[in-house]
Amino acid sequence: MTILILANYANGLFLFRKELIESFKKAGHKVIVSVPFDENVHKLRDMNVELVDTHLERHGMNPLKDLKLFASYMKIMKNTRPGVVLTYTIKPNIYGAMAAKFLRIPYVCNVTGLGTAIEGGGMLSKILVKMYSFSMSRAKKVFFQNERNLEFMKNKGVAAKNAALLPGSGVNLTEHPFREYPSENDGIRFLAVIRIMKDKGIEEYLEAAEAITSEYDNVAFDLVGEYEEDERAKYEPMIQALEEKGSIRYHGHLDTVEPVMANSHVIVHPSYHEGLSNVLLEAGACGRPVLASDVNGCKETFEEGVTGMGFKPGDSSALRDAIRKFLALSEDDRKEMGKKARHFIEKNYDRKIVISTYEQTLKEL
């Protein structure tokens, strides 16, 4: 059949779902991908899938622009006549699912996270929940990435009868092999791999880096990730100042994070909310202990005190305390946490589980 995939970001689709796309092609399906074209779209083009440039703004709600997006999805579906539509992230999940519903095309949604707009409550949250409820009412399946998100939306009347749980996007255990814990002779390296924006906890991480490096001589902090353009003006000067001070090393955006992760001793993820954190899955696969926000979407990816430690989100002092607690462990204890992290990910989050679930869903269609 023809499978139409709707997403808001080419690189995210490539990094976390390329194996799924490859499995569809291997099974003989034609794959068409609708994303906004950017500097990363060539990665999908190299996979020999058909691409459709679809403009959408990932943040904010503009009724006129969102109506145009809905019309674009309607046009794409009428032109391509897919056998099934797969949607990811909020706007494709709403407007893409709505178009498929109107055209009576089978569709499957994946809620990768709820975000502040829904979890924060208020009028906007109510509007979005109503839109989700309407657009997903006839979906063949609505996948959620953590139990709390699933129950939250079901209680709001969204996907009450067609919801299912996935282990996030899973992790490719071949591309992310176990790496031996590095020697601590030259110090202990902390690493955050996050999009540089408030909701990902960048402020807490920067504050912790500045404070901890002033307390300890043998600790260094690394940062990988691209700026959220709306917030660049605020955080770029802060990061540059801390680089000049020697408190942090900023690597910018990297297509392949694994080498930097392999040279680190612990991965920090201070995000305020997640569907299920791919960074933490990859950290565990690499054999690295984690320090992560105690929120759904993060806490499922590690075992407290065994493969990582949780801390209160949005609280820089809580993050600093977690870092100090981690530093108080012996090197052998930290190394053992990393080994156990790999075993935990192998057992629970192999990406093959996700692929198998989608393949079974298509068979049911």
Brief overview:
The protein is an alpha/beta fold. It has 2 domains: about 1-165 and about 350-365, Glycogen Phosphorylase B (Rossmann fold); about 190-350, Rossmann fold, CATH 3.40.50. The protein has helices at about 10-25, 40-45, 65-80, 90-105, 115-120, 120-135, 145-155, 200-215, 230-245, 260, 280-285, 315-325, 330-350, 350-365; strands at about 1-5, 30-35, 50-55, 85-90, 105-110, 140-145, 165, 190-195, 220-225, 250, 265-270, 290-295, 310.
Looking at this protein, list some descriptive labels.
alpha/beta; 14 helices; 2 domains; Rossmann fold; single chain; 46% helix
CATH topology grouping of the largest domain: Rossmann fold
Helix and strand content put the structural class at alpha/beta
> How much strand?
15-25%
User: How many helical stretches?
Assistant: 14
CATH architecture of the largest domain, by name, is: 3-Layer(aba) Sandwich
Please count the beta strands (DSSP E, at least 2 residues each). 13
Instruction: Give the mean pLDDT.
Output: 94
Question: Which homologous superfamily in CATH is the superfamily of the largest domain?
Answer: Glycogen Phosphorylase B
Strand order of the largest sheet: 3-2-1-4-5-6-7
Write down the Rg. 21 Å
One letter per element, helices H and strands E, the order comes to EHEHEHEHEHHEHEEHEHEHEHEEHHH
Low-confidence stretches: none
What is the CATH class name of the largest domain? Alpha Beta
Note the gap between the termini.
11 Å
Provide the domain count. 2
Helix fraction, binned, reads 40-55%
Largest sheet: 7 strands, parallel
Shape: globular
